[in-house]
């Protein structure tokens, strides 16, 4: 993991219990800118809408963002590259989920290894699948408050080499042995050893509060919202097909090659594998057997990956000669019941961030949602499009509405591109920014669910060309 960040940062330098949800039935502003600026926007962008700039608040821009190819765990290694002088960066923040004990503050260790000044502070955040989102928004806060002008934010996850612990009994014995002062004390402790002490504790993608795996939760959520297995497979096939098309057309431009030490150079995501509905239908349920609907084909896979973004105050970026890609605008974090609403973060976060920005769903040109499971995405669609859910669970009078598919994850998503837990947030933001530039839109909406029943949403605004 550290090696991935060294290269990544170095390249940054030149520039079945009762579930109440089962009761559900299936659910089929700001002042006008000055005239000259308005005309400039009209000339520069396909669509002309109000900008989300706020009085007396610094504009914060994404200068660029990159990621190494996202790889299925156990298949290869990683790297990264962007451009900015070392001494310009004020702060470095990265997200990660499964931490290595020796490098628990991986951002600091990677920054030092990459050659950044030891005077540049760095810290690591963890917020499950939205860890990189938290890294970005922490950077936004530092810049908005005037504490910093330039922040590098990102995330990393190396699922191919996760820390595996001894059992609690074995750990206790080893610690006690370390404290023992005499041979007799050591022999007494060793006499209590049993073979089952050697059973390892493997990390699991499970909720601490419920002991339920996320896949199990996704299966129950899909059942609660009457999302069929066929619907889930069809959505997963869409994700892989769109990702393959984007890959073939060179649209995934945030990827930088990674030289695997002693091996090949990886240049593209290797989890994109369009199949057929017939082949997908043959797979057995992965979590709730034999009647579950979540399978390996309609779930995101364990992934190795890293991502990073160069975030600046707009005036600093322009003074340095950079051409930003997008503004980072309003964002929100939400949390709800981790048992029955674990994966509904986008449903709760989307209306809040839209209201905060003074926008409606129709104003959004590009949606980028994290795809943990097909069932999770489709359940969120149904929840977002239900007045009943809005009124009974969200305390809202009306639904926010479901994102139109023609604007949704058009270059693939986590189901096909992969999901390195700590790195996905930056991928989502850069996908939105790059899509807005390519498609001529102005507003993007990024949203994601996370373990613990939490979620995040952010508005990204295209930078005038």
Describe the model.
With 465 residues, the chain is α+β, with helices and mostly antiparallel strands. The chain has a domain at 2-15 and 32-162 and 300-462: Thiolase/Chalcone synthase (Peroxisomal Thiolase, Chain A, domain 1, 3-Layer(aba) Sandwich). Helices cover 33% and strands 16% of the residues. The protein contains 15 helices and twelve strands. The chain has helices at 2-10, 35-44, 106-113, 131-144, 168-179, 183-190, 214-224, 229-248, 277-281, 314-319, 345-357, 374-384, 387-393, 414-417, 424-439; strands spanning 60-67, 71-72, 91-95, 122-125, 150-158, 258-259, 265-266, 303-313, 326-335, 366-369, 443-450, 454-462. Strands 1, 2, 3, 4, 5, 8, 9, 10, 11 and 12 form a ten-stranded mixed beta sheet that branches. A two-stranded antiparallel sheet has the order 6-7. It is globular and about 80 Å long. The two termini are 36 Å apart. Mean pLDDT is 88; it is low at 11-46 and 77-82. It is found in: Endoplasmic reticulum; Mitochondrion inner membrane; Mitochondrion outer membrane. InterPro entries: Thiolase, Thiolase-like, Thiolase_acyl_enz_int_AS, Thiolase_AS, Thiolase_C, Thiolase_CS, Thiolase_N. Residues 322-461 form the Thiolase C-terminal domain. Residues 75-315 form the Thiolase N-terminal domain. Keywords: Acetylation, Acyltransferase, Endoplasmic reticulum, Fatty acid metabolism, Lipid metabolism, Membrane, Mitochondrion, Mitochondrion inner membrane, Mitochondrion outer membrane, Transferase, Transit peptide.
Question: Outline of this structure?
Answer:
Pathway: Lipid metabolism; fatty acid beta-oxidation. The protein is α+β, with helices and mostly antiparallel strands and 465 residues long. The protein has a domain at 2-15 and 32-162 and 300-462: Thiolase/Chalcone synthase (Peroxisomal Thiolase, Chain A, domain 1, 3-Layer(aba) Sandwich), CATH 3.40.47.10.
